[in-house]
Amino acid sequence: MKRILVIILSAALLQGCNTSQNASDAYGNFEADKTLISAEVTGRILQLDIEEGDLLNAGQIVGQIDSLDLHLKKEQMEAQILALKANFEQINAQLEVQQQQLGNIEISKLRTENLKKEGAATQKQMDDVQGQYELAKKQLIAINSQRNALTQQINALREQKKQIELNLQKSTLSNPVNGSVLNKYAMTGEMAMAGRALYAIADLSSLKLKAYISGQQLSQIKLGQQVKVLI
User: Fold this and answer.
1) Residues of the chain with CATH 1.10.287
2) How many Cβ atoms sit within 10 Å of the Cβ of residue 165?
3) Secondary structure of 100-164 as H, E, C letters
4) What is the value of pTM for the model shown?
5) Which residues face 2 on adjacent strands?
6) 203: number of Cβ within 10 Å
7) What is the pLDDT of residues 120-152, one digit of tens each?
8) Architecture of domain 2-60+175-230 in this structure
9) Could you confirm whether domain 69-170 is CATH 1.10.3470?
């Protein structure tokens, strides 16, 4: 979040058009873009190595938020994924066996159909093998459904794990911009809340002067005109 910071330095503009050497044509203040640096995760602040006035570089590590709970959640997530992957392998083995069994029943079904045409098999035998075939197909569908459900669970846990890993990265406080610390809003040992500001920073190497003039002075001012500034 950026805001305009008014630096408490009064400035007077001398355009050179004023006949009095001691009189100024306008008065104003210096301004800088102020950035509020907020926590991205919630947790206790273990370290916040900044003080007001410190000059910070972009990418500089300035603190750490407690991430023990996140590490524990990640370990639990990894254990759940391993357990589901073990079940997935078992389901794959069952699927392979069931596919083989269905193939064998299909062969038996075709043989029985041919025998029945020749009068060497009864209708009961045909009904029995047809029943076995239908049952094997249903079992194969059920195993495939279990396999798909496990795949979805594993993928969901992997996505949750990615989010945890992202939050672990955010637990390490990295300053995003170059500038000087203007205000410090949090201390080591306090609770950081996601979205709540930890400190404010601004680049004081480049300031803007905002000055106010009267309507009568507009005719004396041109774009690009140089002025003298007294602080």
Assistant:
1) 69-170
2) 13
3) HHHHHHHHHHHHHHHHHHCCCCCHHHHHHHHHHHHHHHHHHHHHHHHHHHHHHHHHHHHHHHHHH
4) 0.73
5) 35
6) 15
7) 889 999 999 999 999 999 999 999 999 999 999
8) Beta Barrel (2.40)
9) no
